[in-house]
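Lecture notes, unit on binding sites. The following record was shown on slide 14. It pairs a sequence with flavin mononucleotide.
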Amino acid sequence: MKILVTYWSQTGNTKKVAEAIFQALTCDREIRPFDSVDSLNGTDLVFIGFPIMQFGPPAAARKLVNELAEGKRIALFVTHAMPSQSDDPLQKAMLEKELQKCRALCAKTEFLGLYHCQGELSEKTAGELISSGIPMLASFAEMRTRTIGHPDQTELAEAGMFARSITETLKG
Ligand SMILES: Cc1cc2nc3c(=O)[nH]c(=O)nc-3n(C[C@H](O)[C@H](O)[C@H](O)COP(=O)(O)O)c2cc1C
């Protein structure tokens, strides 16, 4: 089985998850950022990773999936500032809505699953969100301290397990 792990990452969080997935796989595999991928032909499975930006998949992810992934076997991995587990029903609903947009993006692919975890908001990013003028984005910036250290070792190990479970399903 030939697998491609491809990612888009501004501050390195999603890249860490991509590397954890790549390391966890033992078959014929490659890891590449989006900008060096111009075709998904010749791969049996593609792991596509990106951060949530402005409440959904960023333009780079929409472009890659819409232009290259139709009919392909895809699994997603996504990082975001919101905590993966929250007691706040509003926060939970908002994250679920964002993840749903990511799944919906893959409607024309053979979609196999999604892994997601929190990713640290850098100080610079928090500053940019505050000055965006969008109140909801500015409120993410206030969460910065609670994002520090993510993805952590547990989340990276979970990402690896997710990737192995996807490949096991295909072998089975
Ligand atoms: C412009 C911008 C918009 C963002 N919007 C959201 C968002 O809507 N929801 C969210 O949970 N996180 C949001 N984030 C946080 C990132 O998704 C998170 O920090 C992610 O781990 C960054 O990944 P990267 O290091 O791979 O770039 C946003 C970050 C930026 C820079």
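Take-home: The pocket of flavin mononucleotide is lined by residues 9-14, 51-55, 79-82, 98, 119, 121, 125, 129, 137, 140 (CB under 6 Å).
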